[in-house]
């Protein structure tokens, strides 16, 4: 099966100038400008297969949103090849937009002053969706996302979580095979995030919708994506299976344990030896973090139960946030 997204040696450069400070500096900028070229995306190559859910992550300014804007046809690349759903996004934008859905976390595609259902009806006409398909999809989306209570509410009166649910439904009303999500859960509470994650899983399972997701919330990635792409300074640092990355690059393990009583606290120094750091979580809960190359989980647990009286023990992997942070700092994947 052919890839739904093909990107080869993609580059995007912006020309800007250094702004001088103060009033005199602003006057100088009117007549003399020191221009410079910034390469936001630098030789990115990737392919995405139909039905994949791919997490695309990076620090602020790494090039994530620029890549998404090129893939959606908003920006024209400086060089390189981009083909998505059989179209060159920036060149075939009018036809291409019928084959994609896009959600930007801080921007809405709904009309601000009219009811949500009226926005949906307008999108139905724009995308020429049949009445039967429109009613069927709206019914499914309303059920999964819980839209029924505010379909007749103006968009400006919705909370951020309610608006994001409506934006997701709007982006998928025309049943696009490809969905781009840029920070779809930013600023949302736990309940709203859960609704959106379950909806995306269901759409991917039933419709085989391909999803490319950029986010700073790595729990979104762990919940939804098997594959992860890490970009930094415009270059791809990692492209592969999320679980394999965690196994290969995880440097530390963590054991959380619950002491039987306060009398065990003075004995903690006996288990916090070289390469094992012990931290207090609450009065009787502690965690031990240790280098996997120096100590095994079995060895640490054995020392723990032979030294202390504990009520329970929980072995945890190193958080994905710590692994990604190390990749950013080193600039490469070992």
Q: Mind explaining what this structure looks like?
A:
The protein is α/β, with parallel strands linked by helices and 334 residues long. It has two domains: 5-247, P-loop containing nucleotide triphosphate hydrolases (Rossmann fold, 3-Layer(aba) Sandwich); 252-317, Alpha-Beta Plaits. Helices cover 35% and strands 28% of the residues. It is built from eleven helices and 13 strands. It has helices spanning 22-31, 64-71, 93-96, 116-126, 131-145, 160-172, 190-207, 218-224, 242-249, 297-307, 320-330, and strands spanning 5-17, 35-48, 53-57, 79-84, 100-104, 178-182, 210-214, 227-232, 235-241, 252-259, 276-280, 285-291, 310-317. The strands form three sheets. It has a six-stranded mixed beta sheet, sandwiched between helices. It has a four-stranded antiparallel beta sheet with strand order 11-12-10-13, with helices on one face. It is globular. It starts with a strand and ends with a helix. The relative contact order is 0.13. The mean pLDDT is 85.
Keywords:
Rossmann fold; Alpha-Beta Plaits; alpha/beta; 334 residues; 13 strands; four-stranded antiparallel β-sheet; 11 helices; globular; six-stranded mixed β-sheet
Number of domains as seen in the coordinates = 2
- CATH homology superfamily name of the largest domain: P-loop containing nucleotide triphosphate hydrolases
The count of β-strands is 13
- Strand-residue fraction? 25-35%
Major sheet characteristics: 6 strands, mixed
Report mean pLDDT, rounded to a whole number: 85
> Which strand order do you get reading across the main beta sheet?
5-6-7-3-8-9
- The assigned CATH architecture of the largest domain is 3-Layer(aba) Sandwich
CA radius of gyration: 25 Å
């Amino acid at each position: 099966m052919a890839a739904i997204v093909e990107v080869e040696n993609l580059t995007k450069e912006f020309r800007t100038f250094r702004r001088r400070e103060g009033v005199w500096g602003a006057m100088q900028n009117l007549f003399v400008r020191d221009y410079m070229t910034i390469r936001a995306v630098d030789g990115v190559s990737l392919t995405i297969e139909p039905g994949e859910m791919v997490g695309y992550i990076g620090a602020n300014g790494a090039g994530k949103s620029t890549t998404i804007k090129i893939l959606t046809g908003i920006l024209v690349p400086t060089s390189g090849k981009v083909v998505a759903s059989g179209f060159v996004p920036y060149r075939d934008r009018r036809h291409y937009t019928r084959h994609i859905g896009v959600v930007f976390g801080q921007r809405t595609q709904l009309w601000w002053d009219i009811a949500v259902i009226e926005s949906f009806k307008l999108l139905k006409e724009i995308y020429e969706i049949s009445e039967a398909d429109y009613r069927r999809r709206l019914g499914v989306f309303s059920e999964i996302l819980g839209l029924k209570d505010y379909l007749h509410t103006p968009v400006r009166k919705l909370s951020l979580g309610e608006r994001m649910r409506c934006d997701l439904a709007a982006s998928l009303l025309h049943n696009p095979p490809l969905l781009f999500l840029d920070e779809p859960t930013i600023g949302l509470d736990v309940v709203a995030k859960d609704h959106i994650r379950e909806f995306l899983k269901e759409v991917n399972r039933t419709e085989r919708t391909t999803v490319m997701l950029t986010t700073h919330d790595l729990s979104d990635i762990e919940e939804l994506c098997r594959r992860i792409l890490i970009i930094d300074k415009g270059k791809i640092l990692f492209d592969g299976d999320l679980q394999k990355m965690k196994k290969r690059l995880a440097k530390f393990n963590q054991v959380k344990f619950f002491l039987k009583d306060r009398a065990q606290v003075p004995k903690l120094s006996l288990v916090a030896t070289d390469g094992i750091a012990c931290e207090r979580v609450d009065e009787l809960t502690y965690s031990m973090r240790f280098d996997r190359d120096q100590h095994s989980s079995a060895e640490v647990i054995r020392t723990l139960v032979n030294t202390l009286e504990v009520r329970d023990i929980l072995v945890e992997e190193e958080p994905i946030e710590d692994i990604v942070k190390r990749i950013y700092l080193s600039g490469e994947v070992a």
